Amino acid sequence: MTVSGRDRLTLHQPYSHNATVARCIARIRPYHPAMETKGATIVITGAASGIGRAMAQRFSADGAGRVVIVDVDGDGADAVAAELGARAEVLDVTDEAAVVELIERTESAFGAIDLWCGNAGVGANGGVELDNDTWNANWNVNVMAHVIAARHLVPRWIERGGGHLLLTASAAGLLTNLGTAPYAVTKHGCVALAEWLAITYAEQGIRVSCLCPQGVRTPMTEADGELAIEVVKAMGMIEPSQVADAVAAGLANDDFLILPHPEVAFYEQRRAGDRQRWLTGMQKLQASLTSPR
Helix, strand, or coil here: 279? Predict the structure, then answer.
């Protein structure tokens, strides 16, 4: 794009100092109402336990029209569905054909999906020494599953004039997570994807939220002695129900970034403001957790 005259933008100028950019943003920013879960058709992946189960419980309590409990753990999904009077589905979120079938089956039974919560996630302890299969497994679940869901939901939502996508990332996607490179790297990818989707499809009525909790008591954080788990335990753990409460509030406020641990916003600001100081602090934290006592 070429611009000239008084509308020319200098790339080194901060946006806050550029009146032209501010006017453009104010002019094109679309308005769409916040997500209303009451009466909505909601699909939640990774919903057999932990955060996904808590979200299903909260949405059901708030009067959701239909909640679909999705997980690779069929027995777990059945149990949650029975508890809530919901529908259970067994799904590998990395299987694109199966995802399409689930979307079509859900919409045939209940009508348009209003909210898709991509909550399934995996992790792996270790770093670059881990084999490619481990890295690919984290990439496929933590990033590509969201790409697949968006690929098939966004066109439907554009045609209908709206829809909401909630991606469960992690505070690790804004900061890092000691002891688990695949998790930290792929959760950064999840956040980046959520940002891109939010920017790209806002004018078509697509809303996107990115959930970034820190330590939560779930099956993923039950192990002892692993560096990645000890870090989040040291920072303080909360219950899945507290995360679900934060999600409900964030959706009602039409928030992009949902932070059940508000202090994560401060940590991210410190990281961006002085990266070297942040790295030094994280190095000291790692040393304190791994050095012989």
Answer: helix
Q: Which domains are present in the chain? A: 41-268 (3.40.50.720)
Query: SS3 string of 175-206?
Result: CCCCCEHHHHHHHHHHHHHHHHHHHHCHHHCE
Instruction: Please report, as a single letter, which amino acid is at residue 117.
Output: C
How do strand 41-45 and strand 115-118 relate by DSSP bridges? parallel
**Residue 266, Cβ neighbours under 10 Å: how many?**
11
Query: Which one, of 248, 152, 169, 162, lies nearest residue 205 by Cα?
Result: 162
- Amino acid present at 132: N
- pTM here is 0.85
Q: Which residues are catalytic?
A: 183
Residues 6 or more apart in contact with residue 252 via CB below 8 angstroms = 34, 35
- Read off φ and ψ for residue 269, nearest 5 degrees: -65, -40
User: pLDDT, tens digit, for every residue of 68-96?
Assistant: 999 999 999 999 999 999 999 999 999 99
Q: Give the residue carrying structure tokens 């005259």.
A: 5
Structure tokens, 13:
């100028």
pLDDT of 202 above 70: yes
Dist. CA 279–CA 169, nearest whole Å:
21
Phi and psi angles of residue 121, each rounded to the nearest 5 degrees, phi first? -155, 160
Residue with tokens 């020319």: 8
